[in-house]
Design goal:
Layout (H helix, E strand, L loop, with lengths): L1 H36 L4 E9 L4 E6 L10 E7 L13 E9 L2 E9 L11
Parallel strand pairs: 3-5
Antiparallel strand pairs: 1-2, 1-4, 2-3, 4-5
């Protein structure tokens, strides 16, 4: 009887630990998504699309969340599918952040998709 009770207790603890870990994973994903949604959208112009390296060259206005002035620079993209949505010369709005120490475009949309941006160049 004691052996069955011990086995049931171990099983219960193991399942509870899994539920806690799964809950923590989902909370972390929600936090990441919430953080990404809070990034400012910056006006920019695509200068180059490099699908081989997964990078965009963008002439952009100030990026306040990164303390970066207006300039032209190369960014890695968070999702390679973004590279199929833009071409050189496109006016865009994008959100950028530092991911593992690398400046990364987290989101991109056509400039016409939204109104004015106080961070515009």
């Amino acid at each position: 009887m004691l052996l069955k009770l011990s086995a049931a207790l171990i099983l219960l603890l193991a399942l509870n630990g899994t539920a806690v870990a799964d809950s923590a994973h989902h909370a972390g994903a929600a936090k990441l998504a919430g953080t990404e949604a809070n990034l400012p959208l910056i006006d920019g112009e695509v200068k180059k699309v490099d699908k081989d390296t997964g990078k965009l060259t963008i002439k952009h206005g100030p990026i306040t969340n990164l303390g970066m002035p207006a300039m032209t620079m190369v960014f890695r993209v968070n999702d390679p599918a973004m590279l199929d949505k833009v071409k050189s010369g496109d006016k865009i709005r994008f959100a950028a952040d530092k991911v593992s120490g690398v400046l990364t475009v987290m989101r991109v949309e056509p400039a016409s998709a939204a109104g004015g941006n106080p961070q515009a160049e």
